[in-house]
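Q: I'm writing up a methods section and want to include an example of the input and output format. Could you take the sequence below and give the corresponding predicted structure tokens, formatted cleanly so I can copy it straight into the document?
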Amino acid sequence: PAEPLFRSGQTRPELQSTTADSYAKAFRLPRAIPGVMIDRSPLSDGQLYSMVSSRWTSEITRALKSPASHSLSLTLTSPMREPGFRTTVKADGLTPEAKSTKCELTLWLVEDVIAPQETAKGTESAFLHHNVLRQELIKEVVELGKPYVKDFIFPADAGIDRSRAKIIAFISDVNTGRILEARLQSFGSSVPSQPDEPTQPEEEKQKE
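A: Here is the clean output for your methods example:
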């Protein structure tokens, strides 16, 4: 995932995260933002992290077009009137070698947040920040090929808007740390997440 990891002391209070701080420290990320890390793998220039925005589309396209080694499904059962929710995750290898990989599953609770943002045109008072990391729910080794089911209580007292909240699930190689596959599911959708089709950089330009 190329998700925002806002760090305390670098951003507005409503976007801060001590969990993001710990990740930034572990990966020795520079204090300047924004920047991207993709799958925790080296980019085309051999660096782990990039702050050159003009390269991001091509780097993401390159990662998306790489053959998948693992599959991952995520289902979120979340009755809006109930405090609890259930996540069901199933990961598997697509080749005999991949099936033998020892994998770790991580679940993040993220939120879309409206907060001011400095842009080239000045301060935008109602900027939509997507997938701001709120909590790391679990991080543990899972057995490939078998469903992993876990129940949680939504942290309503943390001031998180459930209608804007989502769960991100990803599996990583225990030995290398590389993220092998990821899924995202919103609390407001009953449709299981699906991988996006990669687009070419020129297609992105046509959308702008």
